[in-house]
Structure to design on (152 residues):
């Protein structure tokens, strides 16, 4: 059965929208003069912190407003790193790897007679590849469900 969208704009201070499938309400939303609508709008945001463990980024999108952008909401096109940046990252990883091998060859130990394992740089997560702190992102936002920031 098809869906219907019903819009009630009979009052100038409020507009209500409902999506109905058969006799069941699928979605409901409203916009009022007293409540500023954020859902569905597009904002320019600045990534302030990337949290790999959460697979998310925290962003600031103007007016001292902060939000949470889940990795799953970031379009894959953002992962296309320019060739020059990619080459610089590869060179940096090779230098780190060479330094780690030099440390291993020098036989560093932790003072207890045990050889200290060199930690290789952890591979970056997709969220880190897509969002760097300070980078600008364009993204559609949704209102948070009672959270302090916005769920983006």
């Amino acid at each position: 059965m098809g869906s219907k969208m019903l819009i009630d704009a009979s009052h100038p201070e409020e507009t209500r929208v409902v999506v109905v499938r058969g006799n069941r309400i699928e979605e409901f939303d409203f916009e009022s003069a007293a409540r500023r609508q954020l859902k569905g709008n597009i904002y320019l945001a600045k990534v302030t912190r990337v949290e790999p463990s959460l697979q998310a980024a925290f962003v600031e999108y103007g007016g001292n407003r902060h939000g949470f952008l889940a990795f799953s909401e970031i379009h894959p096109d953002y992962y296309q790193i320019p060739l020059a940046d990619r080459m610089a990252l590869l060179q940096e990883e090779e230098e780190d790897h060479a330094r780690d091998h030099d440390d291993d060859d020098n036989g560093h130990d932790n003072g207890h007679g045990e050889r200290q394992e060199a930690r290789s740089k952890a591979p970056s997560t997709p969220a880190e590849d897509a969002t760097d702190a300070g980078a600008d992102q364009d993204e559609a936002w949704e209102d948070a469900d009672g959270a302090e920031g916005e769920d983006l």
Q: What stands out?
A: The first helix runs from residue 83 to 105.
